[in-house]
């Protein structure tokens, strides 16, 4: 049993990626094993996955068990052939080459992820209470307030990600040594807030493109 604080966490955004590496085989396993001839990936590399399996598509993954032509997508589980039909998961991976730390973070806040429901009545229910059934969950959003500082390299990186409109891998290094990886769409407002006797701040919104993954170390 434990309780931890996020104090000291470090956020970094993927700045550059390698070329897409096509996968010629992707197995139903935990973890799935990908085949890509002479892929050049090494254990610990962080990838963005593109896959025909929606449960894997656009998700971050870490390389493990790398050999000349094969590697594992650590932490993922595609063994369920109903959810992950055999032979339908092929796609490609891109390796994150460089990261830029997002520093001077103030007042981070998360929202979304709430379970949604559909409510209804049958005619014969009369005045009985509505029936309810779960549907999906709302999109998750991480909002950051950054102390305004034009000298910080993240200004250009966040502006480029906002303009591109394509997701970027976000890494959250926690004080205890574990890592959370997200794939997010970046919204960046470079205009600082103005409030008397308060630090000028910029706003960054990070909308999840796919489910995050956590690695213990």
Tell me the structural class.
mainly beta
Please give the CATH architecture of the largest domain: Beta Barrel
Radius of gyration: 21 Å
The CATH C-level class name of the largest domain: Mainly Beta
Shape: globular
Cα(first) to Cα(last) distance is: 18 Å
Mean pLDDT reading? 97
The share of residues in extended strands comes to over 45%
Tally of structural domains:
2
Main sheet characteristics: 14 strands, antiparallel
Number of strands: 16
Please give the share of residues in helix: under 10%
How many helices? The count is 1
What is CATH's topology name of the largest domain? Answer: Elongation Factor Tu (Ef-tu), domain 3
Which stretches are poorly predicted, pLDDT < 50 over at least 5 residues? Answer: none
Order of helices and strands: EEEEEEEEEEEEHEEEE
Describe the SSE topology:
Blueprint: E1 10-17, E2 21-22, E3 25-26, E4 33-35, E5 46-51, E6 60-64, E7 70-74, E8 91-102, E9 105-111, E10 115-120, E11 131-137, E12 141-147, H1 154-164, E13 168-173, E14 179-189, E15 201-208, E16 213-215
Antiparallel strand pairs: 1-8, 1-13, 2-8, 3-4, 4-7, 5-6, 5-8, 6-7, 9-12, 10-11, 12-15, 13-14, 14-15, 14-16
């Amino acid at each position: 049993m434990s309780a931890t604080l996020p104090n000291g966490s470090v956020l970094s955004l993927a700045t550059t990626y390698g070329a897409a590496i096509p996968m010629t085989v992707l197995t139903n396993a935990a973890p799935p094993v990908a085949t890509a001839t002479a892929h050049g990936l090494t254990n610990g590399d962080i990838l963005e996955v593109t896959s025909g399996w929606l449960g894997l598509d656009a998700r971050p993954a870490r390389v493990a068990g790398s050999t000349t032509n094969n590697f594992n997508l650590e932490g993922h589980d595609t063994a369920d052939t109903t959810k992950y039909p055999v032979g339908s998961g092929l796609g490609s991976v891109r390796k994150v080459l460089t990261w830029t730390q997002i520093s001077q973070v103030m007042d981070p806040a998360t929202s979304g992820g709430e379970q949604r429901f559909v409510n209804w009545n049958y005619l014969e229910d009369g005045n009985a209470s509505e029936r309810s059934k779960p549907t999906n969950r709302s999109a998750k959003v991480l909002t950051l307030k950054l102390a305004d500082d034009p000298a910080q390299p993240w200004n250009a990186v966040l502006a480029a990600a906002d303009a591109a409109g394509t997701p970027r891998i976000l890494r959250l290094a926690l004080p205890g040594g574990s890592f959370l990886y997200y794939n997010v769409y970046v919204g960046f407002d470079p205009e600082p807030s103005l409030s008397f006797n308060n630090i000028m701040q910029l706003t960054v919104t990070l909308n999840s493109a796919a489910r995050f993954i956590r690695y213990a170390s």
